[in-house]
Amino acid sequence: MRQCLILFACLSLLACANSGYVPTVERKINTLTSVVSYQVKPGDTLYSIAWRYGLDYKQLAQWNTINPPYVIYPRQRLWLQAIQARKVTGTEISIKATTKSQLKAKSRSASKSKVKPQSSIKVAKNLPSNIISQSQSNPLTTKKVAKKSEWQWPVLGKVSNASELGVDIIAKLNSPVVAIAQGEVVYSGHGLADYGELIIIKHANQYVSAYGNNKIRLVKEGAKIQQGQQIAILGKGQHLRLELRENGKSVNPLLYLPR
Question: What's the whole-model pTM score?
Fold first, then answer.
């Protein structure tokens, strides 16, 4: 009986291999409950690290005081969340957040001393209408929802799986993969597990798209890409993995692609 079961399992694996079909695995974004920092590896970019951990690349850059064009180096330690204190070369560096009680204390102190408000506060009141402040430490621009007419399908095929984490599009082997919108290539490599040959493109309006399971990548990091421009040749499993994020949050690409 045991030999029959082993023989059946081997025949099932052989059948999958001959069909060329690779079962779709729904990817889960890493949570930051236990991961505090990450050491940069060769081939990493700030964008690929942010993608791996489900972060907004701008927020990740802010936490680590990295300015555009967001250059990072192998063995560099990046913080993956805002923390109260960090130890750098044995020295304790305290990062204190301003609390409501501290603000009230400052307000009472200022009222007693009759100190006039600083000019910087007046400027803050005159921010452009398209700027909002969700928190004191994380100001974000107002979300501008992209219209479906602004996007393009990356490959001709059939959608086999779709969710807020991305879509799988079944297509013919060696099909051309094109950019869904104009942008800049911020990652081109194979350093992220389960994505195969992966390309990540940064677009306007806070969007970033990713194209996985390619056979050949045709663009390099830093390349300026036009909408509809071919960026890769489809390969692995004959299905393209397309993922889309807005301000670091995964969204369902089907809500943005034309029908």
Answer: 0.62
